[in-house]
Design brief:
The protein is built from four helices and three strands. By secondary structure, the protein is α+β, with helices and mostly antiparallel strands. Helix 1 (17-26) packs across helix 2 (33-43). The radius of gyration is 16 Å and the shape is globular.
Length: 119
């Protein structure tokens, strides 16, 4: 993930977060790498920017794990691209990771406490 550009609201992702976001993005259907990156950026209101240097190794890792599959196709701008889709094992992994991240976020929220009590 990148924190560059003029937008100071962008934040780097914790290790493992990109995998979860890719899996979640693919639940809506097959997508090529550029489309996955764009979807994550748009859904995060431009807070998360996926660098291609981290995206493609993550896609390769997820494919090696059997959580996504890929095949060649033609993108909307008539370019050859690999399209990735979630596998059955990937759906199960997405459920596991989503549950873990929600528990983690809730626990961190409890430790941080309400925002209005900071002084």
């Amino acid at each position: 993930m990148s924190t560059q550009d003029s937008n100071e609201e962008r934040i780097p992702l914790l290790q493992g977060t990109l995998d979860l976001l890719i899996l979640r993005t693919l639940i809506f259907g097959a997508q090529h790498g550029q489309g996955i990156a764009r979807a994550i950026q748009q859904q995060s209101d431009d807070v998360l920017l996926v660098d291609h240097g981290t995206l493609y190794p993550a896609l390769q890792r997820l494919e090696e794990q059997g959580w996504i599959s890929a095949e060649w196709g033609t993108s909307s701008n008539n370019r050859r691209a690999r399209f990735y889709q979630l596998t059955k094992a990937g759906r199960k992994q997405l459920l596991r990771e989503t549950s873990q991240w929600r528990k983690l976020a809730a626990a961190i929220g409890r430790v941080l406490g309400p925002e209005n009590q900071e002084g």
